[in-house]
Design goal:
The structure holds 2 protein chains of 2 kinds.
Chain A lengths: L2 H25 L6 H14 L7 H21 L20 H19 L3 H11 L4 H7 L4 H25 L1
Chain B lengths: L6 H12 L5 H13 L6 H16 L7 H13 L8 H25 L17 H10 L7 E9 L2 E8 L4 E8 L6 E7 L3
Antiparallel strand pairs in B: 1-2, 2-3, 3-4
Classes of the chains: A mainly alpha, B alpha+beta.
Chain lengths: 169, 192
């Protein structure tokens, strides 16, 4: 799928997705920003871009994904990530240490990401997924220039937070 | 070909990464390097490594579920038709709309008093409060929370614009059917 196709689809679907998510969070009395849910929807839509075949199919897919996102957010208690399993069961094998280290690294990163503004965090994750600056800008209803500025700010803030956590250990 | 085993080259790329100046291909190179290297890294570079490798896993693999779609629909269908605006406010708004509409039609009627003798009377002469309520009902859908209506007479028809509680609005052309027993409703602009 061409980059401009995703841009166009993201722009045209945004109002409808916003309305859908806002109505759901309102009905479930969840204090969660519909805009954040829409950005997560567009990220997941991008992850499934090979299924976007024609406008009607893309729209139906986006609506289904938005519904999935809303249910996932409700089950996560209105947060942006799953609760990490604190009682990680570590088997006594050669991979145990590595698994534990990776788990701890993930925890540290999530705690640092929690401190970022929601849009910066979403943009950072979208870039990690391999989305271009133009695609991220479309998904987040921003300009390409401001997207680059926000990702730069997010990465530098993450480095600062990771350094603080490292020095606390 | 970028040689990431050279520390200076690598750190230049890292600085560009932190300034969001790298391309996707360059970021992929950094990811591959940090995933494979056994080199001892500085504290700062360890943080970069952690940021690059771990954030990729956080975006997550997402499984699309039809079941979750059904669950969403079921939860939305269960919600009560909740009024966010008290009845008395809605009634007051409706009364004002009716009064403005009647006034507008009256003025239009006065203006048309110059029509030629023998010309058939305009349908607007038959406007009543019930007619206006019927127009508004014709554009209503179940479970909608309507904040306000705006009615604009255009010839024998009426353009109805309703604004919902979520700020979106929809417009319709409404006119009497030929047998005067019902309405034709034509959506112009919905969910904007």
């Amino acid at each position: 799928m061409e980059q401009q196709d995703f841009q166009h689809i993201a722009s045209s679907l945004r109002p409808r997705l916003l309305k859908l998510c806002a109505q759901f969070f309102d009905s479930q009395e969840l204090a969660y920003e519909a805009e954040d849910a829409v950005q997560e929807t567009l990220l997941r839509l991008w992850q499934h871009k090979e299924k976007m075949d024609g406008r009607q199919k893309s729209e139906a897919l986006a609506i289904l994904i938005a519904k999935n996102v809303c249910i996932d957010i409700m089950k996560r208690g209105g947060t942006w990530h799953d609760t990490l399993d604190e009682s990680l069961y570590v088997e006594a094998d050669e991979h145990a240490d590595r698994t534990l280290i990776e788990h701890e690294a993930k925890k540290r990163l999530i705690k640092a990401l929690d401190r970022l503004p929601a849009t910066q965090r979403r943009m950072l994750l979208m870039r990690s997924e391999g989305m271009s600056m133009v695609e991220i800008a479309s998904a987040c209803n921003a300009t390409t220039a401001s997207t680059k500025t926000m990702i730069c700010a997010a990465r530098k803030k993450m480095m600062e937070l990771l350094k603080i956590r490292r020095n606390k250990k | 070909m970028t040689n990431l085993n050279d520390t200076n080259t690598r750190m230049q790329l890292v600085n560009r990464y932190l300034n969001a100046e790298t391309t996707l291909e360059e970021e992929q190179l950094l990811r591959q390097y940090y995933a494979q290297t056994d080199d001892v890294l500085s504290s700062e570079e360890s943080d970069v490594r952690q940021l690059i490798l771990t954030s990729a896993s956080l975006a997550g693999q997402f499984e699309l579920s039809e079941e979750k779609g059904y669950e969403f629909d079921r939860l939305m269908a269960q919600r009560p038709a909740r009024r966010t605006v008290p009845y008395w406010i809605t009634s007051a708004v409706a009364a004002v709309v009716v009064a403005v509409f009647l006034l507008t039609y009256k003025q239009a009627g006065d203006a048309s008093s110059t029509r030629q003798k023998g010309e058939p009377a305009s349908r607007s002469d038959a406007v009543t409060e019930q007619y206006i309520n019927n127009i508004m009902s014709a554009t209503n859908y179940a479970n909608e929370q309507v904040e306000s209506y705006r009615l604009r007479p255009v010839g024998d028809a009426t353009i109805v614009t309703k604004t919902l509680a979520d700020g979106t609005s929809s417009s319709y052309i409404v006119c009497l059917s030929d047998d005067d027993k019902g309405f034709h409703v034509v959506p112009i602009n919905t969910g904007m």
